[in-house]
């Protein structure tokens, strides 16, 4: 058992605390940017498009993720004090009077994915670039962001499962326990819990490395869009499994909402994958595929190949 109950505050700057959750999000975003730049160059695309784009998508994902979490936890956290849904604050007296900032938390991944996808589609249309290729560029970065960002849950003592005797079980102090695991029944000194955040983080690391490895294969074994579809199926399968270990979830009809979203994302991505592979890639001559010469782009030392010269017609 890992008998550590971390402080969510990294640094106190006067009256303003700097929280580990925000640091995890920022570090995850920075590493995701690094992955994006490397993948863009490997796929023969312009990395200059990433700088502003990642900010737009990150803000959209924050809004969607927060909205999803507020709906998820409305009865538990926000029904009695709706203003807390707007910003993470703690009131000294009920829901009135003096208040203090209580740190960042409460983001739902699926809400962030939905609004992030909307922002992504808007950006690729604005820049007139290939959406499938850029989605593949983003796929390992999504895994990277997830792998790092989940450590914010560790410092907030959230996203944990039931008690376990496994050596990597983590301690959760009494104030952060869900109702099913009170300290009176599960003593703090001897009870460890499944670190679900860690399981998602490890899955993210493995997923990112796997997709980056795939992108280095020659000849490239996938079609444009396959990597991001693999991400959706992979993440949804892991999330669906881990939701079985959580309690106090947002449920619809007795089923955890995250599991419903996992099914929709995984099934949708799988059907798109099947549809796009329903027949071998058509060729248009000179090795150009129906996917705009994607394999040639990958094999061209990060440059887009020029069109082949056209022989003049005989007189």
* Strand residue content: 5-15%
Biggest sheet descriptor: 2 strands, antiparallel
| Parts with pLDDT < 50 across at least 5 consecutive residues | 283-290, 292-315
Would you tell me the overall average pLDDT?
A: 84
**Helix fraction bin:** 40-55%
Radius of gyration: 23 Å
Number of helices: 10
Q: What is the count of distinct domains?
A: 1
Strand adjacency order, main sheet: 1-2
The backbone outline, from C-alpha atoms, is globular
Total strands: the figure is: 8
Structural class: mainly alpha
N→C terminal distance = 84 Å
What string gives the helices and strands in order? EEHHHEEHHHEEHHEEHH
What does it look like?
It is a single chain. 50% of the residues lie in helices and 9% in strands. The chain has 315 residues and is mainly alpha-helical. It has one domain (9-298). It has a two-stranded antiparallel ribbon with strand order 1-2. The protein has a two-stranded antiparallel ribbon with strand order 3-4. The longest helix has 23 residues, at 20-42. The relative contact order is 0.12.
Labels describing this entry:
globular, two-stranded antiparallel sheet, 315 residues, mainly alpha, disordered C terminus
Summarize the structure.
The protein has helices spanning 20-42, 50-72, 74-78, 109-127, 131-149, 151-155, 196-215, 226-243, 257-276, 294-298; strands at 9-13, 16-19, 89-93, 96-101, 163-164, 192-193, 251-252, 255-256. It is mainly α and 315 residues long. The protein has one domain (9-298).
């Amino acid at each position: 058992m890992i008998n550590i109950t971390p402080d969510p505050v990294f640094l106190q700057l006067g009256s303003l605390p700097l929280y580990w959750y925000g640091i995890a999000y920022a570090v995850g975003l920075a590493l995701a940017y690094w992955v994006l730049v490397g993948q863009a160059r490997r796929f023969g695309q312009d990395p200059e498009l990433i700088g502003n784009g990642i900010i737009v998508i990150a803000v959209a994902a924050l809004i969607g993720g927060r909205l999803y979490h507020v709906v998820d936890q409305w009865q538990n956290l926000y029904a009695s004090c709706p203003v807390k849904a707007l910003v993470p604050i703690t009131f000294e007296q009920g829901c009135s009077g003096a208040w203090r900032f209580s740190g960042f938390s409460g983001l739902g991944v699926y809400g962030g994915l939905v609004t992030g996808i909307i922002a992504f589609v808007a950006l690729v249309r604005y820049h007139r670039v290939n959406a499938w290729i850029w989605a593949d560029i983003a796929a390992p970065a999504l895994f990277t962001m997830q792998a790092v960002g989940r450590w914010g849950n560790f410092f907030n003592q959230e996203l944990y499962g039931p008690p376990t005797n496994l050596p990597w079980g983590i301690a959760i102090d009494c104030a952060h326990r869900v109702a099913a695991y009170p300290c009176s029944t599960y003593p703090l000194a001897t009870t460890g819990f499944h670190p679900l955040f860690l399981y998602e983080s490890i899955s993210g690391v493995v997923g990112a490395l796997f997709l980056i490895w795939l992108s280095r294969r020659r000849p490239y074994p996938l079609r444009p869009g396959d990597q991001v579809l693999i991400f959706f199926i992979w993440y949804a399968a892991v999330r669906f499994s881990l939701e079985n270990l959580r309690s106090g979830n947002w449920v619809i009809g007795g089923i955890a909402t995250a599991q419903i979203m996992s099914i929709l994302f995984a099934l949708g991505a799988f059907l798109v994958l099947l549809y796009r592979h329903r027949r071998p890639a058509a060729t248009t001559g000179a090795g150009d595929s129906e996917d705009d010469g994607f394999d040639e782009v990958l094999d061209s030392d990060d440059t887009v190949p020029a069109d082949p010269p056209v022989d003049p017609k005989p007189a």
